[in-house]
Design brief:
Blueprint lengths: L1 H27 L3 H9 L10 H18 L8 H25 L1
Helix pairs in contact: 3-4
Length: about 100
C-alpha cells in the first residue's frame, strides 16, 4: 500500500510540474498571434531628411506672419523684408527639390 501511495504522489507531482511548465513552454514559441502583433507594430518614425531646412522654412514663415501683422510700414523696409523672406523661402524649397532629385 505504501508503494501505491508513493507512486500516486510522484505521478501527482509530475502532473503538477507538467501543468505549471506547459503555459511557459507554449508562450516561448511565437504563434500566429505573436506574428500578427509583430506585423502590426509600426516602425520608428523616420526623421525628416532635411531638418535644418525644414526648421528654417518654419521660422521664415513665422517671421513673415509677424511682419504682416506689424503696425507700421517702417519706411517700406517691412515690405522689402517680406519680399526677401519670400525669396528665401523660394530658394529653400528649390534646395529641397534639388536634394530630392540628386
Amino acid at each position: 500500500m505504501k508503494i501505491v501511495k508513493r507512486i500516486s504522489t510522484v505521478l501527482a507531482l509530475l502532473a503538477f510540474a507538467a501543468a505549471i511548465s506547459f503555459p511557459v513552454a507554449t508562450s516561448a514559441e511565437p504563434g500566429p498571434t505573436a506574428v500578427k502583433a509583430a506585423a502590426v507594430t509600426s516602425p520608428a518614425p523616420v526623421p525628416p531628411p532635411h531638418p535644418e531646412i525644414d526648421d528654417a522654412i518654419r521660422l521664415l514663415n513665422q517671421a513673415q506672419d509677424h511682419l504682416s501683422h506689424a503696425a507700421h510700414d517702417f519706411g517700406g523696409h517691412r515690405t522689402a523684408a517680406m519680399g526677401h523672406i519670400s525669396k528665401a523661402l523660394d530658394e529653400l524649397h528649390r534646395a529641397i527639390d534639388y536634394a530630392n532629385h540628386h
